[in-house]
Amino acid sequence: MKLLEDRIRKDGTVKEGNILKVDSFLNHQMDIELFNAMGEEFKRLFADRPINKILTIEASGIGIAAITAQHFNVPVVFAKKAQSVNLDGTMYVTKVESFTHKRTYDVIVSTKFLSSDDHVLIIDDFLANGCAVDGLIDLIRSAGATVEGVGIVIEKGFQTGGQLIRDKGIRVESLAIIESMDAKTGEIVFREQ
Ligand code: 5GP
User: Are 20 and 14 in contact (CB under 8 A)?
Assistant: First the structure.
Protein backbone atom coordinates (compact mmCIF):
# COMPACT_ATOMS: atom_id res chain seq x y z
CA MET A 1 0.00 0.00 0.00
CA LYS A 2 1.80 3.06 -1.32
CA LEU A 3 0.37 5.53 1.20
CA LEU A 4 1.75 3.40 4.05
CA GLU A 5 5.13 2.75 2.42
CA ASP A 6 5.58 6.49 1.84
CA ARG A 7 4.73 7.19 5.47
CA ILE A 8 7.16 4.54 6.74
CA ARG A 9 9.92 6.07 4.55
CA LYS A 10 9.11 9.55 5.83
CA ASP A 11 8.57 8.92 9.55
CA GLY A 12 9.90 5.44 10.36
CA THR A 13 13.28 4.97 12.01
CA VAL A 14 15.34 1.80 11.95
CA LYS A 15 16.79 0.77 15.31
CA GLU A 16 19.46 -1.79 16.16
CA GLY A 17 18.05 -5.28 16.73
CA ASN A 18 15.74 -5.26 13.69
CA ILE A 19 13.23 -2.86 15.23
CA LEU A 20 11.34 -0.35 13.12
CA LYS A 21 10.05 2.56 15.15
CA VAL A 22 6.81 4.02 13.85
CA ASP A 23 5.68 5.76 17.03
CA SER A 24 4.55 8.94 15.32
CA PHE A 25 1.69 7.31 13.36
CA LEU A 26 1.16 3.69 14.46
CA ASN A 27 2.45 2.60 17.87
CA HIS A 28 2.12 5.63 20.12
CA GLN A 29 0.52 8.55 18.31
CA MET A 30 -2.02 7.15 15.84
CA ASP A 31 -2.88 8.73 12.48
CA ILE A 32 -6.57 7.88 12.26
CA GLU A 33 -6.94 9.05 8.66
CA LEU A 34 -4.21 6.59 7.68
CA PHE A 35 -5.79 3.88 9.90
CA ASN A 36 -9.08 4.45 8.11
CA ALA A 37 -7.45 4.00 4.70
CA MET A 38 -5.77 0.81 5.96
CA GLY A 39 -9.07 -0.50 7.35
CA GLU A 40 -10.68 0.08 3.96
CA GLU A 41 -7.84 -1.80 2.28
CA PHE A 42 -8.20 -4.80 4.65
CA LYS A 43 -11.92 -4.83 3.80
CA ARG A 44 -11.11 -4.86 0.06
CA LEU A 45 -8.55 -7.67 0.50
CA PHE A 46 -10.84 -9.89 2.59
CA ALA A 47 -14.18 -8.95 0.97
CA ASP A 48 -14.74 -12.56 -0.14
CA ARG A 49 -14.47 -14.01 3.40
CA PRO A 50 -17.46 -14.43 5.77
CA ILE A 51 -15.82 -12.55 8.65
CA ASN A 52 -17.97 -11.93 11.74
CA LYS A 53 -15.26 -11.04 14.26
CA ILE A 54 -11.82 -9.44 14.44
CA LEU A 55 -9.22 -10.69 16.91
CA THR A 56 -6.09 -8.80 17.93
CA ILE A 57 -3.70 -8.69 20.87
CA GLU A 58 -3.16 -5.87 23.33
CA ALA A 59 -1.92 -3.24 23.20
CA SER A 60 -0.70 -1.99 19.85
CA GLY A 61 -3.09 -4.04 17.67
CA ILE A 62 -6.21 -2.58 19.24
CA GLY A 63 -6.30 0.76 17.41
CA ILE A 64 -5.98 -0.60 13.90
CA ALA A 65 -8.32 -3.53 14.70
CA ALA A 66 -11.01 -1.14 15.94
CA ILE A 67 -10.85 1.12 12.89
CA THR A 68 -10.76 -1.91 10.56
CA ALA A 69 -13.82 -3.37 12.30
CA GLN A 70 -15.87 -0.36 11.28
CA HIS A 71 -15.38 -1.38 7.64
CA PHE A 72 -16.56 -4.95 8.37
CA ASN A 73 -19.33 -3.98 10.83
CA VAL A 74 -18.14 -6.62 13.28
CA PRO A 75 -16.95 -6.58 16.92
CA VAL A 76 -13.30 -6.65 17.97
CA VAL A 77 -11.96 -8.96 20.64
CA PHE A 78 -8.48 -8.32 21.96
CA ALA A 79 -6.50 -11.08 23.62
CA LYS A 80 -5.14 -9.98 26.99
CA LYS A 81 -1.62 -10.52 28.24
CA ALA A 82 -1.41 -11.91 31.78
CA GLN A 83 1.60 -12.76 33.94
CA SER A 84 0.25 -16.22 34.65
CA VAL A 85 -3.23 -17.66 34.81
CA ASN A 86 -4.98 -20.58 36.42
CA LEU A 87 -6.84 -22.60 33.86
CA ASP A 88 -10.38 -22.36 35.20
CA GLY A 89 -12.24 -23.37 32.09
CA THR A 90 -13.68 -19.94 31.38
CA MET A 91 -10.92 -18.78 29.10
CA TYR A 92 -8.76 -19.93 26.27
CA VAL A 93 -5.06 -19.61 27.09
CA THR A 94 -1.90 -19.72 25.03
CA LYS A 95 1.70 -18.59 25.40
CA VAL A 96 3.27 -15.82 23.33
CA GLU A 97 6.89 -14.76 23.30
CA SER A 98 7.11 -11.01 22.87
CA PHE A 99 9.55 -9.92 20.16
CA THR A 100 9.97 -6.41 21.54
CA HIS A 101 10.04 -7.27 25.26
CA LYS A 102 11.91 -10.60 25.04
CA ARG A 103 9.65 -12.41 27.50
CA THR A 104 6.82 -14.92 27.46
CA TYR A 105 3.25 -14.05 28.36
CA ASP A 106 0.13 -16.07 28.92
CA VAL A 107 -2.45 -14.65 26.55
CA ILE A 108 -6.14 -15.15 27.22
CA VAL A 109 -9.57 -14.71 25.67
CA SER A 110 -12.78 -15.37 27.56
CA THR A 111 -14.81 -18.31 26.24
CA LYS A 112 -17.73 -15.84 26.11
CA PHE A 113 -16.20 -14.03 23.15
CA LEU A 114 -15.00 -16.82 20.84
CA SER A 115 -17.04 -19.82 19.78
CA SER A 116 -17.24 -22.45 17.04
CA ASP A 117 -19.65 -20.20 15.09
CA ASP A 118 -17.02 -17.51 14.63
CA HIS A 119 -15.18 -16.70 11.40
CA VAL A 120 -12.25 -14.63 12.54
CA LEU A 121 -9.91 -12.13 10.90
CA ILE A 122 -6.71 -11.58 12.88
CA ILE A 123 -5.35 -8.03 12.73
CA ASP A 124 -2.00 -6.88 14.12
CA ASP A 125 0.44 -4.03 13.64
CA PHE A 126 3.62 -6.05 12.99
CA LEU A 127 4.55 -9.53 11.86
CA ALA A 128 8.09 -10.45 12.88
CA ASN A 129 8.74 -14.01 14.07
CA GLY A 130 5.04 -14.81 14.07
CA CYS A 131 4.66 -15.68 17.78
CA ALA A 132 1.82 -13.23 18.39
CA VAL A 133 -0.19 -14.33 15.34
CA ASP A 134 0.54 -18.00 16.04
CA GLY A 135 -0.81 -17.56 19.58
CA LEU A 136 -3.98 -15.93 18.25
CA ILE A 137 -4.47 -18.81 15.78
CA ASP A 138 -4.09 -21.21 18.71
CA LEU A 139 -6.81 -19.37 20.69
CA ILE A 140 -9.19 -19.41 17.69
CA ARG A 141 -8.61 -23.13 17.17
CA SER A 142 -9.15 -23.84 20.88
CA ALA A 143 -12.60 -22.28 20.47
CA GLY A 144 -13.31 -24.40 17.39
CA ALA A 145 -13.68 -21.19 15.38
CA THR A 146 -12.40 -20.62 11.83
CA VAL A 147 -9.36 -18.49 10.93
CA GLU A 148 -10.41 -16.58 7.81
CA GLY A 149 -7.12 -14.74 7.44
CA VAL A 150 -4.49 -12.48 8.90
CA GLY A 151 -4.20 -8.75 8.15
CA ILE A 152 -0.90 -7.11 9.07
CA VAL A 153 0.12 -3.48 8.80
CA ILE A 154 3.91 -4.04 8.54
CA GLU A 155 5.47 -7.43 7.85
CA LYS A 156 9.21 -7.72 8.29
CA GLY A 157 9.75 -10.10 5.39
CA PHE A 158 13.31 -10.90 6.45
CA GLN A 159 12.01 -12.57 9.63
CA THR A 160 10.34 -15.96 9.71
CA GLY A 161 6.75 -15.16 10.76
CA GLY A 162 5.21 -14.66 7.31
CA GLN A 163 6.47 -18.01 6.06
CA LEU A 164 5.48 -19.77 9.31
CA ILE A 165 1.86 -18.63 9.09
CA ARG A 166 1.49 -19.02 5.29
CA ASP A 167 2.91 -22.57 5.58
CA LYS A 168 -0.08 -23.41 7.78
CA GLY A 169 -2.29 -22.65 4.75
CA ILE A 170 -3.51 -19.38 6.25
CA ARG A 171 -3.96 -16.32 4.06
CA VAL A 172 -1.77 -13.43 5.21
CA GLU A 173 -2.21 -9.97 3.69
CA SER A 174 0.36 -7.38 4.73
CA LEU A 175 -0.09 -3.76 3.70
CA ALA A 176 3.69 -3.23 3.59
CA ILE A 177 6.39 -5.90 3.51
CA ILE A 178 9.93 -4.84 4.37
CA GLU A 179 12.54 -6.80 2.48
CA SER A 180 15.49 -5.28 4.31
CA MET A 181 16.33 -2.38 6.57
CA ASP A 182 19.59 -0.94 7.80
CA ALA A 183 20.00 0.73 11.18
CA LYS A 184 23.24 2.44 10.08
CA THR A 185 22.03 4.07 6.87
CA GLY A 186 18.31 4.13 7.73
CA GLU A 187 17.56 2.56 4.34
CA ILE A 188 14.30 0.58 4.06
CA VAL A 189 13.56 -1.63 1.04
CA PHE A 190 10.00 -2.82 0.40
CA ARG A 191 8.91 -5.98 -1.38
CA GLU A 192 6.98 -5.33 -4.60
CA GLN A 193 3.38 -6.56 -4.14
P1 5GP B 1 6.16 -11.51 16.44
O2 5GP B 1 5.32 -12.17 17.47
O3 5GP B 1 5.62 -11.68 15.02
O4 5GP B 1 7.62 -11.85 16.54
O5 5GP B 1 6.11 -9.94 16.74
C6 5GP B 1 4.92 -9.26 16.63
C7 5GP B 1 4.73 -8.24 17.70
O8 5GP B 1 5.96 -7.67 18.12
C9 5GP B 1 3.86 -7.13 17.19
O10 5GP B 1 2.59 -7.23 17.78
C11 5GP B 1 4.57 -5.86 17.60
O12 5GP B 1 3.93 -5.31 18.73
C13 5GP B 1 5.96 -6.27 17.98
N14 5GP B 1 6.98 -5.95 16.97
C15 5GP B 1 7.70 -6.83 16.24
N16 5GP B 1 8.60 -6.22 15.47
C17 5GP B 1 8.45 -4.90 15.70
C18 5GP B 1 9.13 -3.74 15.17
O19 5GP B 1 10.05 -3.78 14.33
N20 5GP B 1 8.69 -2.54 15.62
C21 5GP B 1 7.68 -2.42 16.53
N22 5GP B 1 7.33 -1.19 16.89
N23 5GP B 1 7.04 -3.50 17.06
C24 5GP B 1 7.42 -4.72 16.64
Answer: yes
